[in-house]
Fold these 4 entries.
Entry 1:
Amino acid sequence: MKNSFVKILLFVAVFTNASCSFSQNKQASEGPVVLISTKYGDMKVVLYNETPLHRDNFMKLTKEGVFDSLLFHRVIKGFMVQGGDPQSKRATREQVLGDGDLNYTVPAEIVPGIIHKKGVIAAARNGDEDNPERRSSATQFYLAQGKVYKFDDVPSIEQNINGRIAESLFLKYKSDKIDTLMLFQMARNKEGYDKLLDKLKQKAILETDKHPVKLTKQQIETYTTLGGIPHLDGAYTVFGEVLDGLAVIDSIAAQPTGAMDRPLENIRMTIKVIKE
């Protein structure tokens, strides 16, 4: 895996908005709960029943002790804190982290209406070009910090989301036409190559414009009060949220970092199940 937000290539897929009735608050009272412990405190995290594959995978790994002593190896203040790389357990200070994983991935469970509000736990993954199905890392996850937005920011948030939707669609259309594009390259037909790419870009823009994303009132309220990372909505599987201990995310995110956003001081975790 690419050292990353492994994974967090910043563009977004189309997602249902105004018609969605799913409530993250409702779900938070129903799923299993785990406790993520760090030297900066504990976070009580509920796992959503709406994302059963990720829920069950995280519970299984937690019970097996897979996460214990792993590091939060990538920290970006105002964005997220990421951990779960198996290679981080015994990593040297100079070791580059972010590529470690188990020998499987988890199918995407991107649920309409589950947004990247502050405190959600989501699965890291490889980017769309290498991973068009948006399958999740088995072990690597991130906790969203993000920022609080102003009401005046809403149009630019929506514009950014729709632009990334168009970019994602363009990559899909490009992948579908890869054989034709390769033939143009082999024939050194730059004009034909460029024309086809432009056609695919325009197709992606037109398709996006048919059903542009608009944030719901609830989403606007969340992002202008609690905050979060709206430009990741619809692109990564969010599978739970912090019920208690949000300040721990802020404490981890505030730590000084070095190369590849790795904290200068190791921040280890342990995770245990506190409610099945």
Entry 2:
Amino acid sequence: MKHLPFILLVLLLSTMTVACGSKTSETVAEPSPEMQSADFVNITDVVPDVILEIRYFGTYNFVGARIDGYLQPTALLTRQAADSLKAVNDDLVKQGYRLKIYDAYRPQMAVDHFVRWGKNLDDTLMKQYFYPQVDKKDLFRLGYIATQSGHSRGSTLDLTLFDMHTEKEVDMGGTFDWFGRESHPDCQGDLDKGIYIAYDNVDTITAEQFENRMLLRRAMMAHGFKPYDCEWWHFTLKNEPYPDTYFQFPVREL
């Protein structure tokens, strides 16, 4: 396959980084001050065989501490998003996979925790694991930290695939919440054509890792979820029921 000129590719990647930052920083509404969970469900009540690894309930995350608002290691979604996720899971189970969820509904208080952490430039406890190539002072400018998140609207989730035959998480070529170009879904690939492109000396994922990302992406998009340009693990229900509401109630079993 013909390779792109290196300088052209560098310029393209720089443009995409700026675009991700501006997209993540959009805000449209103030968070709801009241606990409003009537239209939310426990994901495991709708999709019983999903695997939960709620990173923000534990300490293995980019902050290195349990995040405010995560009272139990569970995952919540709006009923509409959970029903669509069940359809995704049903398709993937037929192919030998299960869904593994890192995060779903995220209260505004958790986002506020991220913002406080981002402003404390002395706290770099988890830098080597999640952002070794990024200066912490640039996390807001690059869009990795923002004052609001689509997760707080209740129809966004972060997830990956688990292979039931190998009994291992599928290799996606990068860890959840990695702050870097490698997390972009189009890293070394053409998303429209779904094909791998082996750029020289730029990105690091393999053809197999790219196809694994496409497998998850195709399944999610087939059932009403839209992907995010900067994170292969991040999807939002297209017709989300609360597009302008950022909820505050904590994450715990309903």
Entry 3:
Amino acid sequence: MNGVLLINLGTPDAPQSGPVRTYLREFLSDPRVVDINPVGRKLLLEAVILPLRPAKSAAAYRKVWTDRGSPLLVESLALTDRVRAVLAMPVELGMRYGNPPIAAALRKLVDARVDRITIAPLYPQYSSAATGSSLEEVYRQVGKLDVVPNVSTLPPFYDDPRFIEAFALQGEPVLAREKPDHVLFSFHGLPERHVRRTDPTGKHCLQSPQCCDSMIDANRDCYRAQCFATARALIARLALSADRTTVCFQSRLGRTPWIKPYTDLVLPELFARGVKRIAVFCPAFVADCLETLEEIGLRARDQWLGLGGESLALVPSLNSSDAWVTSLTALLQPHLH
């Protein structure tokens, strides 16, 4: 029997310092996320991040937490329920960090007598820190089972027309209502070294301003190139003028160079050019979360209004929308036979 394991990154159990500290310790202890030597990672985590960041992050989570809990978890569970109903087979959700853990989700599938599992990392663009880490954990947990099931994996779907269509349908009402002067496509950032490591030639990624203008063999696994491909596909589908759009990257951490341009630095540049009204897509996320609702919907909006801008509208993520359920189940179908 077939089964599906949906994977998202994770969330604290509650918007207080203690649960956030637990979540951050697990997340930032991952060598795929903080890819420095183990001693340096331990020192950074215990001496710098964990004494200060949990309280700040907890305050941010409280701004978006709902009566039902973390938006990311609520929306991911709703999606899981809807995909299970459409496919009429066991479908479970596992979070790479926090709850419900991947191990528990796999156990539910095994207990349901599933012998073929399709792994669906819900990250449109590939990154070692998210997709790679999630798959590594799946393989680690599958390897512990007495009977190892047949496993297949949904590949990155960054420019798949079904994913693009679902996001375009989320954006169209916002664009019609807000009539923005400019549209941002703001993706989660990564350290530059992460994308350089995906270039087997060592001569393409981040070597020129045009390195992400098209997908070629050298950048086929590059997160930044895949983000630009997502944006190009959405621009084409929404019939947007390219000169009224910008691709940018948010959520950088630390002092090392992250992929550019940075969202918070793009905003004052746009205001200086006379832009007043902005709409923001966040197509690295398929469910609304801290990075979309708080970082863009609240913080970036406050920054924009503080500069003198008139409005900044966040396009809702895919969440458990009808279009995303239809698109995701269609993406999964070839793996279920």
Entry 4:
Amino acid sequence: MKDIKKRIAFNKFWDYAFWTAGFFSTLVGLALLFTLMADLFMDGYPRLSYKFLTSFPSRFPEEAGILSAWVGTFLLMIVTALSAIPLGIAAGIYLEEYAKKNWLTDIIEINIANLAGVPSIIYGLLALGLFVYFFKFGESVLTGGLALALLILPMVIIATREAIRAIPNSIREASYALGSTKWQTVWWHIIPYSTGGILTGIIIGLSRAIGETAPIITVGALTFIAFLPSSPVSPEFPFVSFKWLLDPFTVMPIQIFNWVSRPQPEFHVNAAAAGIVLMAMTLLMNAVAIYIRHKYRKRIKW
């Protein structure tokens, strides 16, 4: 009996020790993150203004803005999301629910896991050879968006598979017992219940994509651009234009890098202000995804 009590006390001690170590590790990480964000905010806040958001880059730091950069980032994220999310979710559903478990699917799973750890510059080189030289898309918004879609595609597939795998088999069996087909079970039960996990993977993937620089530079994003891509709205029927997909572009990370590399302190202040805007865009994008995830979970709960 005494040995059991000693063992329980010993386990409680180590449990408390690991809890303490984890708590302080988290606290240190949050403190460093808060310090960096506070420093960035104090440096860049004086430069934030409506003019800064609506002006093009300039040789004069007091006149420079990020209009072309944030518009390019926004359009790039649209192409990336529309390319990677449907394809990644469909691939995850097929591999988890429809594909036979054999040596071929094992090879596919191993390669998907390996692709998630490939450096981003490799995806840039792949996009350069495939989309720029082979498909002749040029150094355009479409090329940049597809390059980032390739980058986050393995993350979306893995997140989708893990979310589906977490659904209990009893839900599938109950659906089949009521006469549902495979697709009806997936559409009405598997996908709704796994939406939270899938959206978490999408959030992580898009958060990585919005800050990437290497693949975008590789496919020819401009470091200085004083015009916007073509408008997606056309005055003629069908009132929608896709010409902007083939226009040149720049993005926020490249604009920040361009300003940081200059010796003038005023450009460094501009870079800090652009960093604040980039963080705000990332947080807004994540907030939308989290809101959608919450709505799905609330609907399922009811």
